[in-house]
Structure formats: C-alpha cells, structure tokens
Description:
The structure is a single chain. The chain has a domain at 6-176 and 281-377: FAD/NAD(P)-binding domain. Helix content is 33%, strand content 26%. The chain has 12 helices and 18 strands. The strands form 4 sheets. It has an 8-stranded mixed β-sheet, covered by helices on one side. A 5-stranded parallel β-sheet has the order 7-2-1-11-18, sandwiched between helices. A 3-stranded antiparallel β-sheet has the order 8-9-10, with helices on one face. Bound molecules: flavin-adenine dinucleotide.
Amino acid sequence: MDSSTILIAGAGIGGLAAALSCQKIGRKVRIFERAPELGEIGAGIMLTPNAVRCLEYLGLGDTLQVAAIEPTDSIYRRYNTAEVMMRAGVKDTMRDKYGAAYYLIHRADLHSLLLRAVLANDPNAISPGFRVVDLIQSGASVDIYFENEGSASGDLLIGCDGIHSDVRSSLFGPSEPQYTGQSAWRGMVPADDLPDTVIEPGMTSWIGEDKHIIQYPVRQGKLINYVAIVVLEEWAEEGWNRPAPIDEVVTSFSDWHHDVKKLLASTPADNCYKWGLFVRDPLKTWTVGRATLLGDAAHPTLPFAAQGSAMAIEDAIVLGRALAENENVESALKVYEGTRLSRTAWLVEHARQATKLYQRVHGDKSKERAASVDEIYSYDAVQCPLGVS
Ligand SMILES: Cc1cc2nc3c(=O)[nH]c(=O)nc-3n(C[C@H](O)[C@H](O)[C@H](O)COP(=O)(O)OP(=O)(O)OC[C@H]3O[C@@H](n4cnc5c(N)ncnc54)[C@H](O)[C@@H]3O)c2cc1C
C-alpha cells in the first residue's frame, strides 16, 4: 500500500464522509470495515442545515435532494391531547436563515449515496470484513492490524469505528459506558397502514412527562420512522439492534393520544427495536501522533439533539481542510482536534440537557427550542476558522 494512503477504520456515515473529504483534497484513502457487507440499519435520520451544508460541499447536494424529504415544519404536541405546544416552519425557512436545507432521510439511503461517491472516486477504496484491532506508530507511518490476520500501513489513521471504538481503546485504553436511565424503541411503519390523521408532512415530537416520541416520514413519505424514549431504571446492554415485541412499546404509551397508539401498534413485527442509551465521559484529546478519532468514536452522544451524524460529518470536513492546509500530519491532526473539541463537547452536553425540552409538559417550548437552534444550525464546518485550542 502506498505510504501516503490515509487509513480509515469503519465505513459508517462518519468513515465515508471522512473518506470523501480526504478524496476531495486529492488524497488516497483505504477504509477497513469490520462488517462483511456494507450497509446501514433501517432507521431514519434528521439532517440539520449544519450537516447538509457539509454534504453539499462534498458534492452530494443533488443526490441528497432526490433521496431526502424536506419537512414542512416541526411540531411539538402534548402527549395525550395532541394540542400543538410549538410549531416552527422548516421547508420555507431553513435555506433562507441558514443557507442550507433541513432533510429527513432513510439511513440506508444516506449511507448508499456516500458509499457510491467514495467508490466513484476509487473503486478499491473500501475493504469489508476487516476489523482493526491494534496499531503501531513508527516514524512517518502507522501500521494497523486486523482481527483475523494481516496488516496495512499508511500516513495516518482515522478511527471512525463508532461508540465501541477499538481504535479509541488502542489509543486511550478501554472506557466503561454509563447507562443514562433512558431507553428507546425505534420502528418504521408503512404509511399505507396508517390513517391520514397519523401522517404529518413534517416532524412531530410528542411531549410527555419522562417520555417522548419523535416521528417523521422518509422515502417519499412511504415510511413513517419513530423513536420512542422513556425513563427506565435499569438496562444491561449497549447497542441499538435488539428486536423487541411491539406489545412492550404499546403498553408503555397506553395512556397517550390515539394517533400515537395507532402508530406504535402498526409497527411491523420484525421492525421494532429497543435499546438503552449510554454515555461515556468526554475525552480531552482524540489524537496520538498520526492517529485520531472521528464521529461516535470520538464523542458519542445521546440522540436528543439529532446531532450524532451531523457532528461526524462536520468532523470530516474540518479534518479534510486541516490536512489540506498542513503538510505535517501531526500538526494537521492537532488543528483538526483543536477546531472541533469545543463544538462537539458543547453539543454532547446540549443533547444531555435536551431531556428537559422533550420530556417536560410544562414550559414555553418555542423559547426553549429557540435557545439552541441558531448555534447548532449556523455552524459552518466549510468556512469556520481552523485553529489549535
Ligand atoms: C435513535 C437514534 C437516532 C439518531 N438520530 C440521529 C439524527 O436524526 N441525526 C443525526 O445526526 N444523528 C442521529 N443519531 C446519531 C448517529 O446515528 C450516530 O452518531 C452516527 O451513526 C455515528 O456515525 P459513525 O460513523 O461515527 O459511527 P457508526 O455509525 O457506529 O459507524 C461505525 C462503523 O465502524 C465499523 N466498525 C466498528 N468497529 C470497527 C473496527 N474495529 N474496525 C473496522 N470497522 C469497525 C462498524 O461496523 C460501523 O460500520 C441517532 C442515533 C440514535 C441512536
């Protein structure tokens, strides 16, 4: 392998965005993905303008517009009466205000458009079935080692291997996740199985006490995606692919509005999943020499602010820019990390605090929401000043 190659562990949304950003500045990348097949789980993702701005910069604006939906508005409803507690325009306001759209998209569709773009630049860029388990740095290169056998060498390593990152453990030692006291169900319901009252053209957040649900359409409105989050004392495992019986989520929301109950009860039997929400203490640094972290590997977050993928995509842009402006790899990685640490730490903390917005039925929701939206959506990873903090 060419010694100037950039090695990436993980072909999730973060790894693919990082690859594209490095290809954009003319660098050769090689992604090693643990899974034997490439893909994403069946769930929706909300792409806020700060993320869309980055994807447009990577040349994905047109494909994104075709694959995604622009929601009309964002509505907060009271859990039992459906009374509107907050309504904010999305489709007609986001581009004007923040210079980029707000999109709803199926995760598999976002993953596939990133994947196609990376492979169009280099058909050999990705190797599935390779789990990176260790690394050794020497002089001007980094060697990575795979679980089965074999190794690869390159100029630098970007660990984009998610919340259970092996690269993070190699660099900083293992870390214990802490359960947050919140658990979640997710499901996708065919819109044809639902009455019109349940289907709204925008994003609907149902606000309850210690519980909330977010629902929105994906795939031209053919599927309604939901995430239902509840306070639950105990949970054992991390990870969000454990199938769950639909009765559990239906029972948990049995005193909610009939539209909510209809949505949950209509979940196809093989499409309901439950998982516990875990956090880790934030790292003070992500970088050692020629190796760094990106996305959930660097700053795992709660899903309340819909910023996990957005942060990974922002990281990818800043990393590409830092590499373009600094010939010395170690300096470039310091600039990348220095530019991103405070933004991501703030967003992780903001997501922790967002339970108050979604899981309290009292308070002025318009005011609470407005307090953070500008800071999140107006961040410009494409043009922000780069620097070491
Ligand atoms: C319910 C829920 C809703 C969410 N909604 C949103 C949303 O609306 N908007 C938003 O921006 N974010 C959202 N997020 C967050 C978002 O899903 C994550 O932050 C994002 O997927 C992180 O991407 P990543 O590439 O860093 O990690 P991952 O998506 O976890 O990808 C890591 C990849 O690395 C691979 N891998 C793991 N270990 C190794 C190894 N050792 N070697 C090689 N490969 C490896 C994995 O197989 C995987 O492909 C949500 C999260 C949840 C739980």
